[in-house]
Amino acid sequence: MMKMQTNHRPYPLPIRPWIMTQTWNDVFFIHWPVDFDDIRDKVPKPLYIDTFNGRAWIGIVPFHITDFKVRDIFSIPFSSAFPEINVRTYVTYNNKPGVYFFSLDAGHWMASVAARTAARLPYFFSKIDVAKKNGIITYKSSRQDTNRLDGEFEGSFSSDHTTYKSEKGSLDEWLTERYCFYTTYRNKLYRCDIHHEKWELQKAEGEILTNTLVSSQGITLPDDKPVFHYASRKKALIWPLIQVRK
To answer: Which InterPro entries does UniProt cross-reference here (predicted)?
Structure first.
């Protein structure tokens, strides 16, 4: 069982048992500041859009999942390993900061369907290629779902290999240390709790060649260079969805 180090969390672990684990690999956090008003109508009203120094943030996070297991049972055969790219912003509800996903692209059809149904999240099936060469990691994704939002992404990224943990109150911490996500279904609000040890981050850089994941949501990113972070590997525990607002 994963060692429960919890002093870095902003609120305690849930009392109820977690139900699954995942390991996240070659995680790149790519972030842009945006105006609060630009995304207010894109996020369900019960959620308050979180800000840092007065700005909201949009993140694109490509990574690949391994060791996707149900607690004490087995690896899930059809989805134990696959790449994913999510588009997200940051929100709070009842003083619990978390993530709100605009979209999640998964490189396995059955995994995307199962996650869309079980987690009530906007998952899409995409062809996602992940390549590593000479210290550069490339993610290339093309959405395969028909009659769904356009979504293409391609970028190449690298890191400086020096790890650090974010300082309390820093932008690094604010962007990466999130321990739940929120979603809605039939006008009801749900939360899914997550736990992992604090990220061992690396400074990173990259080049984005194609990105319609955000514009397909009706959101325009600024021309500013994004803020990059990288983490090589992190095991996470995941709890079942709970309804937090009728």
So the answer is: ADC_dom_sf, DUF2071
